[in-house]
Structure formats: structure tokens, C-alpha cells
UniProtKB/TrEMBL annotation:
Residue ranges of every copy of the SPARC/Testican calcium-binding domain listed in the record: 168-279
Protein name per UniProt: SPARC
One Pfam family recorded for the sequence: SPARC_Ca_bdg
Keyword field: Calcium, Disulfide bond, Glycoprotein, Secreted, Signal
An example molecular function term from Gene Ontology annotations: extracellular matrix binding
Secretion signal, residue range per the UniProt entry: 1-20
Gene Ontology cellular component annotations, sorted alphabetically: extracellular space
Localisation: Secreted
InterPro entries: EF-hand-dom_pair, EF_Hand_1_Ca_BS, Osteonectin_CS, SPARC/Testican_Ca-bd-dom, SPARC_FS
Organism name: Drosophila kikkawai
Name of encoding gene: LOC108073605
Coiled coil, from the record: none
């Protein structure tokens, strides 16, 4: 990008200079009234010299200012930017240009959902056709749009994917067996991601370790998932950060909600790595905090 600007800038500069020297050669003759002067006249030579000097100074100034402009453009490239590109709008909103300014507005239309698996159940135990429609409704209520069905909807959020249903109990045996199933599941998810080349180099290494060293099999997967859930990298997983693992599974796996509840053993709404390990019934000594703060490497970028 930079070198492109440099080339453009130098090209422009060269064009300006050619133009300037053409104008100059004509200008000299026009400005001087030669009729009264003898060619040998000292006055004439002095005048010519002064004029040349003045022209030189002027040209230097022009070139200097052109260079300054090129330099300025190099440092502050005026690229045609999509004004909306820099505006994060959040769920249920999209960016639109209004009066030449980017603005976040409620998403006008959600894709029509026929698939009932796309339904979502909110914390108010209401079934909505899709997550989009929940966020759209929340936006409407936030901005006092007339399409807001109930002002309380400004605070609703998705509890889980799937239509609302009777809370199913997770009985003793299922809950007892759940940590083992969860460990296996995490190991398999990590293995799948590794096979699809969707882990960072750091987590690829941990996955390889899990494959080759039996005592790392579950602990590395557990550490990876805990790091992955900790979106703000404050080294604890909040209730909010559990959303990606909780919401899609509640309908399929009735033990996930009570299981996750049980992980926060001191009930401070945050799950530490120690709590997470204990919850998955892993040996605390095997759990080493090895988070990769580079969240997701683009696959195939490094060739
Ligand atoms: C939520 O709604 C479903 C069906 O609409 C109902 O069966 C269930 O009992 C409700 N759950 C709660 C906690 O009220
Ligand atoms: C396997 O992992 C354990 C720790 O969990 C470690 O002490 C041991 O050295 C590892 N073995 C190999 C062969 O790397
Ligand atoms: Ca966190
Ligand atoms: Ca806790």
C-alpha cells in the first residue's frame, strides 16, 4: 500500500516538474522586453540573472510543497473508505450512511426461518423465530420504535437455541456421568478443529500433546476450551462468556445447565481454571494455564 502511494506521488511530482519547465521557458521570453536592450548590456544580464534566480527560488518552493504533500499523503493516506467499515453496530443493528455519516440502525429485516431448530428461547421463556428476530426486537424497544411489542423486551436475551420447553431434570446418574462425557466431548471438538486446521499454532501443539501423552489427553482440551471461552482474556469465565457453550446445548443436553452451574463452586459468577478443572474431575496438577492470546489464526495464511 505504502509503496503504491510512493509511486503515485513520485509520478505526480515528475508530471508537475515537466509542466513547470515548459511554462518557464515560454514565460521568460514573454516577460522580458528585449527591444530596448543590447544583448551585451550589463543591465540586461543582471536582470536575466535575477529573474532566473527568482524562478529557481519559486521552483524550489513549489517542489518543496509538492514533496510535503506527497509525504503528507503517505502518512495520512486519503483512501476511499467505507465509512461503515469502522463502525461496530452490535447484534440486531446494521450500519447505514445517513447524511453522509455512518449510523447504526435496527436491522430492517431478518431472514425468514422455517427450520424450528433456529428458534430461540429467551430468558422471558418466549419462543422467537430466530436469534436475529430477538436482537431486532430488542433494538426496536431500545429505540422506542412502534414495532416494539413490550418495553421490557429491551432487556431480553437468548437463553438457549430451540423452542422453549419444560425444564427437563438432569437426574443423579446423568449428572454424575456428565463430567466424563464433557471431557470426551471437549477432546473430540479440539481434535476436529485441529484436523480442519482451525486452531492456532499454540493450540495445535497442545492438541498434539493430548494425542501423544495420555495424561494430557483431557487436561489440554479443558485448558484450551476454558481459554477459548474467556473472550476478554481476564483469565476467568463469566456467565456471559459461557453463552457459546451453553445456549446451543441446553435443548440437546439437559445436564449442561446444571453442570455449568456446579462449576462455579464459590458462586461468584466466574469460573476460574481451578474450578473448571475440578468440575471436569481433572487433576489440578495437570492444569497449567496456557492460553494463547492470539485468538484465532486464519488458516492457510502462513502457507
Ligand atoms: C416455558 O414455556 C414452556 C412452553 O411454552 C412451558 O412448557 C414451560 O413450563 C415454561 N417454563 C417456565 C420456566 O415457565
Ligand atoms: C506427559 O505429561 C505429564 C504431565 O501431565 C508430564 O509430566 C510428562 O513428562 C509428559 N510425558 C511426555 C512423554 O512428554
Ligand atoms: Ca473473562
Ligand atoms: Ca467462581
Amino acid at each position: 500500500m505504502r509503496s503504491l502511494w510512493l509511486l503515485l506521488g513520485l509520478g505526480l511530482l515528475a508530471m508537475c516538474q515537466v509542466q513547470a519547465s515548459e511554462e518557464e521557458s515560454l514565460g521568460d521570453l514573454d516577460d522580458l522586453d528585449l527591444s530596448d536592450m543590447d544583448e551585451n548590456d550589463e543591465e540586461f544580464l543582471r536582470l536575466l540573472e535575477d529573474k532566473a534566480k527568482a524562478k529557481d527560488v519559486q521552483r524550489e518552493n513549489e517542489i518543496a510543497s509538492q514533496l510535503a504533500e506527497v509525504q503528507h499523503n503517505l502518512l495520512n493516506p486519503v483512501v476511499e473508505v467505507d465509512l461503515c467499515e469502522t463502525i461496530p453496530c452490535g447484534a440486531g443493528r446494521i450500519c447505514q450512511i445517513q447524511d453522509e455519516k455512518p449510523e447504526c440502525v435496527c436491522i430492517p429485516e431478518c431472514p425468514e426461518e422455517i427450520d424450528t431448530r433456529r428458534h430461540v428461547c429467551t430468558n422471558t421463556n418466549e419462543t422467537w423465530p430466530s436469534d436475529c428476530s430477538v436482537y431486532q426486537q430488542r433494538c426496536w424497544c431500545d429505540s422506542r420504535d412502534e414495532r416494539c411489542a413490550n418495553l421490557d423486551n429491551a432487556h431480553m436475551h437468548i437463553d438457549y437455541y430451540g423452542a422453549c420447553h419444560e425444564p427437563r431434570t438432569c437426574d443423579g446418574e446423568d449428572l454424575k456421568d456428565f463430567p466424563r462425557r464433557m471431557r470426551d466431548w471437549l477432546f473430540n471438538v479440539m481434535r476436529d478443529l485441529a484436523e480442519r486446521d482451525e486452531l492456532t499454532e499454540h493450540y495445535m501443539q497442545m492438541q498434539l500433546e493430548a494425542e501423544t501423552n495420555h495424561s494430557r489427553r483431557w487436561s489440554n482440551a479443558a485448558v484450551w476450551k476454558w481459554c477459548d471461552l474467556d473472550g476478554d482474556t481476564d483469565r476467568s469465565v463469566s456467565r456471559h462468556e459461557l453463552f457459546p457453550i451453553r445456549a446451543p446445548l441446553v435443548s440437546l443436553e439437559h445436564c449442561i445447565a446444571p453442570f455449568l452451574e456446579s462449576c462455579d463452586s464459590n458462586n461468584d459468577h466466574r469460573i476460574t481454571l481451578i474450578e473448571w478443572g475440578a468440575c471436569l474431575e481433572l487433576d489440578a496438577d495437570d492444569l497449567i494455564e496456557r492460553c494463547d492470546d492470539v485468538k484465532r489464526a486464519k488458516p492457510h495464511m502462513l502457507g
